Amino acid sequence: MLDIDKLTLGFGGTPVLSEARLTLSRGQKLLVCGAAGSGKTSLLSVAAGLIPRLVTVPELSGTVTLDGQPLGSIDRQALFRRIGFIGQNLEDQLWDLSVEDIIAFPLENRGMAKAEIRARLKMLIDGFGLSALSGRRVLTLSGGERRLVAVAAALASGPDLLVMDEPTTGLDPAARRRLCSILDQAAQDVPSLLIADQDAVSLLPVVDRLALLHDGQLCAPQPPARCLENHAAWEEAGLLSPMRRRRLAPAGAIGRPLLAVSALITQLTRSVGDPVLNAVTFEIRTGEVVALIGRNGAGKTTLFKAMLGLTKAARGTITLDGAAADRWTVAARARKLAYVPQNMRHILFNMSAIGEVIFAITAATAHSNDPEVVAKARAALARYDLGHLEEANPFSLSVRQQALLGLACADAAGALVAIIDEPLLARDLRGRQLLERFIAAMRETGRAVMLISHDLELVDDLASRLMLLDEGRIAYDGPTDEGWRSQAFAKLGWSAPYASVPEETA
Amino acid sequence: MIWLHDLNFFVKLALAFAVMVTAWLAPGWQAGIAFALLCVLLLWLLRVPGVAGYSKGAALLTAMVMASWLLNLTLQGIPLAAALPVAAAMAARLVATTAAFFFVMETSTPGAILAASSAARLPPLVTLVLSLTFGVIPMLRADFERIADAQRARGMEIDDVGLPSRLRFALARGVPLLVQAIRMAHAISFSLSLYGYDLTRKRTTWRQVGLMVEPRLMMRNKADAK
C-alpha cells in the first residue's frame, strides 16, 4: 500500500534519514521506535504526504508511493482523505474550535450532508467516550483529551492509512488502553496504521510489526514480541529496552522541608461543584525526588498552578523554605519553584537559548553584562548538550532540545524545587542520562524535584516517594515501592511498572 | 448570558452595524456620549467576557482621540470651547463602535461563525475571512495573557511593580506574541490543508442554524429523528 524507497531527508548537514526504506501492506500495523531526533517525525511526515506538500525541506530524495501512485501526483484533497495524520504536538494542527467542530471539520469541508455528519459525529463521540466534552473548546481540554479528539477527527473521514506521531503522549495508562481499544475497533474502517512512539509496550495490542529507526535507517520490521526481547537492538537504537530489568531508585539523604502545602482547596471547581483540589496536604524536603501521578484530569496541573499562585486558592497555606508564601506574587514563588512543562513553548518568550537561561538566572532580563551570569548560563547550556545552540531561537529548537533548555533554565535558576511535567526525553538513553544528571545536580545542591508523569517505569526508576492524586485529594503519599501495592493505586486499575520483569539494584 | 453566545453571528453583526450607524448619526455630542456610555454599560450588564479590559482600552482610546482632535483643531485656530464638543463626539462614536464589535468578537467562536457562514452558503473564502477576522483576536488576547503567566511563572515580577514598569513589560510581550501569532497562523493553515478546506467547494455544517446556533451536538431533536 505505502512504499518508501531510498528516502534521504535532511535539514542541512548530515541527513536525518539516509536511503531509508519502508513498505506497509494493506492491513498492516507498523510501530516505528527511535530515539529523539532519530527522524521518526520526518519519516512519518513523508509517509503522510506532509513533506514536501505542506512542509519543504532543503534535502529530499527517493520515492514514495501509495497503492503504486507517487504521492506527489495525488490531488491534495484526495491525499489527505486517504491518509489521516495526527502529529505529536497537537497545537500545530488544532485551533480554537469546539470538540464537535474539530471532528466534523473534514466532513463539513467535503460538503457532506448535515444528517450524515451528525450521525458520524454521534458515533465517534459515543465510541470515544467524549460525550462529557461535548461543546467544549478544544484548546481548553487536557493534553490527553485533545489527543482523543484529534484521533476522532482523523478517523472521521475514514482514511485508508492512519499515521500517528507519539500518540501516547500525555495519556494516562487507562487512556492508552482506551486509545488501543478505539484503534482496534476502527481496524475495519482504517486498514493500515503507521505509528511512531517510544512507548512500545502500550501499543502492542494494536500493532503487528515493530521496526527500530537509527542512523537514518529503518530496520526490517519484526513481530513485536521478538523485537521487544532484543535488548541490544534497543540500546543500539539509543533507547531504553522496554523489557529491561527493574532498577530501584537510589535513596538519598532527606533534609529540611522546602515546600509545604497544607489543606489546600482551590476556587476552581469541577462541573459537579467540587473543588478541583480538596484539602491537599504534603511536604517536599531537600534531596527528595517525589513523583506525582494520577488520572488525566485528576488535578495535577491545577496543583502546580495553585502552588505557583496561577490558580487561586480558596483555603490552605503554602510555605516555601520555611516562610509563609500565601501572599507572595506568582513571580516571587516562581523564584523558589521552577516549572518545566511538557510543552516548553508555553513558557519560552526570549529570542535566544542563552537569553532564556540568563532570564532564568536574573528573573528580569535576557541580556546581562555580568560575566559571571553569562558564564553560568553558558555552563548550564553545555551541561545539557545545548552549548552549540546558544544563539538559536528557542522556538526553532526541536521538542527534545526545548525540554533540555527547560532543565538548563531550572538548574541555573537555583530554585529550591523543580517541577518537571511529563519529561518526554526520558525514554531514550541520552535523554534519560541528562534527566538523571539534572536530578543529581538538584539533590547534590540540597534541592528537590517533583516529577509529574504517566510513565510509571520512569517514576519507579527515579522517584524515592510517590504521591497519587485522585478526585482532588492525595490518595497515597509514601515510598514508591509500597505505592504500587496500595489500595489507592489498585483503584486506578493500572498495571504496576515492571510487573513482569525481575529487579536489580542500582 | 450564555444565550448571547448562541445568537446567530450575522444577527449580532447586523446589531453591531446598527449601533455603529446610530452612534455616527447621533444629533450632538451630548447624545453621542450618552449612547456610548449606554453601550459600555450594556457590555457590563450582559457580562461580556473581558469587559474590564475593554473598558480600560476604551478609556485609553477616548484620551488619545480627545488629545489628538483637540491638538488638531487648536492648531487650525478653533477655540478650545468649540473644539471640545467635536473631540468628545468623535471619541463617543469610536467607543460605541468598538463596543459593538467587541461584543460580536467576544461572543462569537470561530466554530459558530463557520457554522453560520456555511449555513448561509457563503463562499468558503468569505467564511474563512469572517471566522479568522472575528475569531483570531480573542485567541491572540488569550495568548497575550498566557505569555504574561509564563513570565510570572519564570519569576518575572510584573504584578508588584509601578504602572510604567507594567506598561514596559506589556510592550515586551509584543515580540513573543508576534512569534505566537505566526505559529497560530501556521497551525490554522496546516489544519485547513490537512482537513480538506477547499476554497472551490461550499461547506456544510453539523449545527442547526437559525436565529440561534446550536452550541453542542444534541441528537434528540427533530432533525436527527428524520
Task: Give an account of the 3D structure.
The complex is a heterodimer of chains A (506) and B (226). With 506 residues, chain A is of the alpha/beta class. Helices cover 34% and strands 23% of the residues of chain A. Chain A has 19 helices and 22 strands. In chain A, the strands form five sheets. In chain A, strands 6-7-8-3-9-10 form a six-stranded mixed β-sheet, with helices on both faces. In chain A, helix 7 (173-185) links the parallel strand 7 (161-165) and strand 8. Chain B folds into two domains: 2-108, no CATH class; 111-194, no CATH class. Helices cover 74% and strands 0% of the residues of chain B. Chain B is globular, with a radius of gyration of 21 Å.
Helicity level of chain B, as a percent range?
over 70%
The CATH superfamily of the largest domain in chain A appears as P-loop containing nucleotide triphosphate hydrolases
N- and C-termini, Cα separation of chain B = 32 Å
Instruction: Tell me how many strands of chain A there are.
Output: 22
| Strand composition percent of chain B | under 5%
Tally of individual domains of chain A: 2
Please describe the biggest sheet of chain A, giving its number of strands, its sense, and whether it closes into a barrel. 6 strands, mixed
The CATH architecture of the largest domain in chain A would be 3-Layer(aba) Sandwich
How would a crystallographer describe the biggest sheet of chain B?
none
Task: Determine and state the CATH class of the largest domain in chain A.
Answer: Alpha Beta
Task: Please mark out the parts of chain A with pLDDT under 50 across 5 or more consecutive residues, or reply none.
Answer: none
The low-confidence parts of chain B are: none
SSE pattern of chain B, N- to C-terminal: HHHHHHHHHH
Largest interface: A-B, 64 and 54 residues
Instruction: Using the alpha-carbon principal axes, give the shape of chain B.
Output: globular
Main location (chain B): membrane
Family (chain B): Belongs to the CbiQ family.
Pfam families (chain B): CbiQ
Protein name (chain B): ABC transporter substrate-binding protein
